[in-house]
From TrEMBL:
<keyword id="KW-0813">Transport</keyword>
<feature type="domain" description="Potassium channel">
    <location>
        <begin position="163"/>
        <end position="222"/>
    </location>
</feature>
<protein>
    <recommendedName>
        <fullName>Potassium channel domain-containing protein</fullName>
    </recommendedName>
</protein>
<keyword id="KW-0812">Transmembrane</keyword>
<dbReference type="InterPro" id="IPR003280">
    <property type="entry name" value="2pore_dom_K_chnl"/>
</dbReference>
<feature type="transmembrane region" description="Helical">
    <location>
        <begin position="154"/>
        <end position="178"/>
    </location>
</feature>
<dbReference type="GO" id="GO:0030322">
    <property type="term" value="P:stabilization of membrane potential"/>
</dbReference>
<keyword id="KW-0406">Ion transport</keyword>
<keyword id="KW-0472">Membrane</keyword>
<dbReference type="GO" id="GO:0022841">
    <property type="term" value="F:potassium ion leak channel activity"/>
</dbReference>
<feature type="transmembrane region" description="Helical">
    <location>
        <begin position="36"/>
        <end position="54"/>
    </location>
</feature>
<dbReference type="GO" id="GO:0015271">
    <property type="term" value="F:outward rectifier potassium channel activity"/>
</dbReference>
<feature type="transmembrane region" description="Helical">
    <location>
        <begin position="6"/>
        <end position="29"/>
    </location>
</feature>
<feature type="transmembrane region" description="Helical">
    <location>
        <begin position="93"/>
        <end position="117"/>
    </location>
</feature>
<dbReference type="InterPro" id="IPR013099">
    <property type="entry name" value="K_chnl_dom"/>
</dbReference>
<keyword id="KW-0407">Ion channel</keyword>
<dbReference type="Pfam" id="PF07885">
    <property type="entry name" value="Ion_trans_2"/>
</dbReference>
Length: 235
């Protein structure tokens, strides 16, 4: 007598479904969307394959795997989740390295969008003329053009991380239920990728939100450090 057996893993089925949907969307929209043709497919495939493999090796569902991979590739590394099986550990060694390459490459458009929004917000504050307000006659025009308004430059470099830090504070207070001190502490430890692991997301909603917040926070800090370094040498 034939009998039907339910799938042993919802995560494996979901991962395959996501991968199939991505391939379907790629075939329809791939010719008109550069990001989807390149990084988008790789990014979704990375998480989908990870969902299937970690379900088989560690018994994680798709959300837990997505959270673990995001915490891993952003180098936050809370330590609240880690593979326990030998095969899971070996798989993570190679898969984490692939993630560092693929995920950050796919996040380039996000970083560019953050820079665009930051510049758009700060545009009204940008000096129209580098000589405006100058009272030091010993400085030449070339000096002014080279240095510009260094206070504004450093201020604009810090604007992005400051906004992301405030967003992280609200996530800590509203989503994770932290008090103000723990919220400030968690937001800074997370954004700087220190990730002690004493405070981390445990619920499904928290981990889903963190999967979106962590790449944005790390990208904003990386942009600020790069911009600050360039502006420091140009001063």
């Amino acid at each position: 007598m034939l009998s039907w057996h339910a799938p042993q893993s919802l995560a494996a089925e979901t991962g395959l479904l996501v991968l199939s949907a991505t391939i379907f969307l790629y075939r329809i929209f791939g010719g008109s969307n550069e990001w989807l043709r390149t990084h988008g497919v790789i990014l979704v495939t990375y998480y989908a394959v990870g969902g299937v493999v970690y379900d088989e090796l560690e018994g994680w569902d798709l959300l837990d795997t997505t959270y673990f991979l995001t915490v891993t590739v952003t180098t936050v590394g809370y330590g609240d989740m880690c593979p326990e099986s030998a095969m899971g550990k070996l798989f993570t060694v190679g898969y984490a390295l692939l993630g560092l390459i693929f995920v950050f490459a796919a996040l380039n458009p996000l970083l560019e969008a953050l820079i665009f929004v930051k510049d758009l917000i700060l545009r009204p504050c940008t000096p129209k003329d580098p000589t405006e307000g100058c009272v030091d006659d010993s400085l030449t025009i070339d000096d002014l053009r080279k240095g510009g308004n260094w206070k504004f430059k450093y201020g604009s470099a810090l604007a992005g991380p400051l906004l992301i830090f405030i967003l992280g504070l609200f996530i800590g207070l509203i989503v994770m239920g932290l008090d103000v001190v723990d919220g400030i502490y968690w937001s800074m430890i997370t954004m700087t990728t220190i990730g002690y692991g004493d405070i981390s997301g445990s619920g499904s909603l928290e981990r889903a939100v963190l999967c979106l917040y962590l790449p944005t926070a790390v990208a904003a800090l990386a942009d600020a450090l790069a911009a600050g370094g360039k502006k420091g040498t140009a001063k």
